[in-house]
């Protein structure tokens, strides 16, 4: 049913637009344009970053920037304002913004005068509490990011809504997902820019669907506010975008190992048997996740006395065998008056749960049946919830899996099948009862503004709580829902996928688009969550899963068992081999995590990230790079043993055979079930370790540097892997370089830098296809020569 306002449905009301600029005033880092009753403001925050704001009423309301750093945090770059008869131009070192006097429309140009982010008619507009902007799409432009998205890589000709939803049974056509990240990257050869739509309200991008050649963004709030980030490369865009929205902290190194999960390993006995299988079968595993059945009747922060009578003892024994335990926590608190359920009682006593505008408690239906929802917008609620984790950390829980935090409110496993419940958009949220550093008293909002933030704020409460409870130990935090900037608080998985070949295929572009949205620590449920995998699907998924920044296998209640040994010997062997390879690559992968934490670079990335001027990479969804050296071209179809592989410019080596190819070219790879095609770039240096059954099993000795001929360098990052000492510079980096000439290759190890002390160890330098040399690594500079 369309909503009617006066005679016309809302989407047929005319847009109001800016009238001619009447006055211009310049403040420290902004230029303000007065256009009759309304006003446009452009803030220059860096030479490649501008913020555009439009206030239809002429008055900017104080903005709550939930996900972005304050404008004041940016060092004001130098810029010039130039006026012509028809335009006002803002020029920074990297870009020029041209504003039309007659209608306030804006256009950007790079230093070679290439246009980007050009307003299309009507430029910017507003109607009935909605604001929007329109811009031109260049003929050869492609679109990425948009947070969590199904389908393939490029989102041109698609409509993408930003509204967090429990996207159960999603498929390639699903629009609203668990995550809502209103950010994208537009790319064409030589030119790339990012748009961050600074709104937590419902918003939507229409990439050339309603009007071919024009993209539009629209949000249900009265002011328009967005950032334009010039690249031109995706790497530069993401560096700035993550400076704006924050970067991930380093997780504990064990979180990079293999995680095993199921809904549910339902008792202490089952969990012990599971752990034993891993060790007996020599399949590495670091983490066991406990799903909702560990609780007493799905009451968060409780344990089932029947199934898990001695959780502390269990967790300690698992720890002795090298396993970390992660428990699930849902936001829905069982509605249970007078039952001595302390989480409910405390929440009621302090009025921590969300109420409707009229004052009654809001409730939905989730695992514990009728449930109420903490208001994570409030700092006091976040603190309370964070402290509740003490009962878990006290017995050794090492990480928390935050689920159902879109929030899901319509699961009635045991209740009636009534009408769907909606979260009332006018429910008041936020507004701490006490003013604190990060929440001021006046920040009371409605659910319409807070909805997309629910998961992020829950994850924040969890991450901050865990850091207080374990002040010198990094914790693992996982969340299903989140908003832009979620990377500051948590890793993310892509919710409830299915054991289907197309979900395996889709997992790569989904994770790549998350990486291109600033969220690097991401994964999909390996093997597929719902439905039942076949042996072949499971084997292929384990190969692909080895590439996921978060490698967790998970499966749903009533589905077939999905452990590495569930499908017979052949599949088990494949699982072991690829999990082993993951563990061997950990020194490399951990360094990629450090890069993500310091620069915002995705860990898993599409080829366009490293080859942004090669249009053949623009729609290549089924090949990925793990860091910039290793490229995978997985098989994701049943019965398929061959596939086409695109090798971009440069020399590439087959990981398995050492065969070399000169790109750009297409090759046909042969990939029987035991093999996932893998390639390395010439000049690649990949640090590797021996297979371990878990990350902390023993120290990294020997370190093997697999090196391929060519010219290249790699900086290895190392620290203790589990404390926060790295923040006080307790880490080391070592730069390696390979240089190849006609008859010899020279491998240089620079002097180790940094203050973390490493024990001396053996280093094996293997120049692939040529030979290896061994040395005792004590941190001093070395040079090795290989005759070719
Ligand atoms: C949700 C989660 C899933 C979990 C299940 C039970 O469906 O997405 O991962 O296993 O709830 O907690």
UniProtKB/TrEMBL annotation:
Residues of the Glycoside hydrolase family 31 TIM barrel domain: 249-592
Which residue intervals define the domain Glycosyl hydrolase family 31 C-terminal in the entry? 600-686
Q: Which residues form the DUF5110 domain?
A: 702-769
The Glycoside hydrolase family 31 N-terminal domain extends over 40-206
Quote one Gene Ontology molecular function term. hydrolase activity, hydrolyzing O-glycosyl compounds
Q: What InterPro entries does the record tag this protein with?
A: DUF5110 (IPR033403), Gal_mutarotase_sf_dom (IPR011013), GH (IPR017853), Glyco_hydro_31_AS (IPR030458), Glyco_hydro_31_C (IPR048395), Glyco_hydro_31_N_dom (IPR025887), Glyco_hydro_31_TIM (IPR000322), Glyco_hydro_b (IPR013780)
| GO terms of biological process kind | carbohydrate metabolic process
Keywords from the named record: Glycosidase, Hydrolase
Q: Family per UniProt?
A: Belongs to the glycosyl hydrolase 31 family.
Instruction: Name it.
Output: Alpha-glucosidase
Q: Which organism is it from?
A: Gloeocapsopsis dulcis AAB1 = 1H9
